[in-house]
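Lecture 7 notes: from sequence to structure.

We start with a single chain of 104 residues. Read the sequence below before looking at the structure.
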Amino acid sequence: DHPRQLSYANVAGYQPDSQVTDQCAIDLDQAAIEDQLALQTLESFQNARRIYNQGGNSKSYALINLANGLACSISKGEIITGMNAEGNEISGEAYEDYEAGTVA
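Now the structure, written as tokens:
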């Protein structure tokens, strides 16, 4: 038996040692910004600024609302794992510190 080894998808022929999905998605953000700027409307300029400041394809996040508060505190950067609406396992890192009892 060989232990299972996980790796991340190659990026431009490079094998990263960590997840770089958000960093790679910045190209998509750049294209979206350019598309919005090309429209030359007030709304499209606001959309371009929002994509620049908040990310569109990069800086992915999930907002989780809990029916019951957290049983324990969670530290920024701690890995959180759960199930999405389709029943698939998902995971991510805590964006900030959360105290026990937090619901959103």
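The CA atoms of residues 65 and 104 lie 5 Å apart. Keep this in mind for problem set 3.
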